[in-house]
TrEMBL record:
Origin: domain of life: Bacteria
Full protein name: DUF4440 domain-containing protein
Leader peptide range in chain numbering: none
Alphabetical list of Pfam families matching this protein: DUF4440
Domain DUF4440 intervals: 17-103
Residue ranges that the Swiss-Prot or TrEMBL entry lists as coiled coil: none
Amino acid sequence: MADREEDLVTTADEAQLRQLEQDMFSAIRTRDRQLLESILDERFELRVPGSPTADRAGFIGAILAIPGTILSVESDDLRVHVYGDVGVLTGRQHARVRLEDGTIVDDVGAFTDIALNGGWFSLTASPCQPPPDSSRARLGFTSAAAWGDG
């Protein structure tokens, strides 16, 4: 019976983490500074290989500065793991943006998100290949220049 109760807690925790991830994607898509600030821990860091670490203010500033209209921010291959009070999500994020000239741009990256105390504490992102059916350019927001540090 104890195993079953633990499974139920884990399932509830996993559902809460999935919702937190969806709230994060929604906040990015709508450029909702207030929601981003409520989701991201004050000690938040974004780490992108080959780029300086971005803090919470730098990450939010970069989201708000994305040119054009953010059409979608979605994830696939999402995996959720709960280790006591720490949640870890891994997967791929796909963002689609329409630039001022009408060009549609795709950005695809692998991510690892760490949740602590109900907020995102750390994100790690690495660029990856866009979907095979995409002939569009990449946004490149996983580069140092996109986060204002490079």
